[in-house]
């Protein structure tokens, strides 16, 4: 198992990898989120200046503090909860917050992270968070330690993709995925698929093929729709993950997302991109 990869063992006893985000990418994501939060706060403050002109100074101060807490703490907590651990900065940088066991976070995790973030990021200008991340073996800040969470990289760098080109899904499949009902697919299945695609290049071809087939059959049980004939199971899984990520981005941020796009280097490849959160998996079978 390479450096920087946290191990997770599936029910089939296959070791999958969680790739903790590095400090530079986390810092960039935080910088984007903080910048957006401050712009929002300044805009709200300008509105409050005129709206509270008739109030006394104590009331104005109370409203200002409430607005600051709402923008810097409350809104980030809501966004992380509704988007499954992805703020705007994390979407741009290809990061996600997950539990230590790799599962999706809930409100309580986002609440602890947000409360601690007010101290280690907002009040200390990120100094405490940076020091904690440098000391932690997995780059976790104090909010992650107390919440039992981990920030991981969802995008696979091309250099890490030791692998291979999966046959691209046909254009007609994109339209079918747009009509696929994914509401009954559990979070555990999505996690297993993401980790499978991230480690496919390190699996034995027969084992990897069998796992992909089982995952497609599991998906059929949740949706009632069988895997398309003539489409590589792993490529189909990658396309489905891309479809779901596009829907999540549209719900969370109102972004206009296009259908999954297929792109790759000269030997072929599958790159599932949706709007600003392009998720690529370059693999060799």
UniProtKB/TrEMBL annotation:
It comes from the Bacteria. Residues 22-148 form the RDD domain. The chain crosses the membrane at residues 28-51, 58-79, 114-135. It comes from Streptomyces tubercidicus. It is a multi-pass membrane protein. It is found in: Membrane. The lineage of its organism: Bacteria, Bacillati, Actinomycetota, Actinomycetes, Kitasatosporales. Its main location: membrane. One of its GO terms (cellular component) is membrane. This is Membrane protein. The keyword Transcription does not apply. Keywords: Membrane, Transmembrane, Transmembrane helix. The keyword Cell inner membrane does not apply.
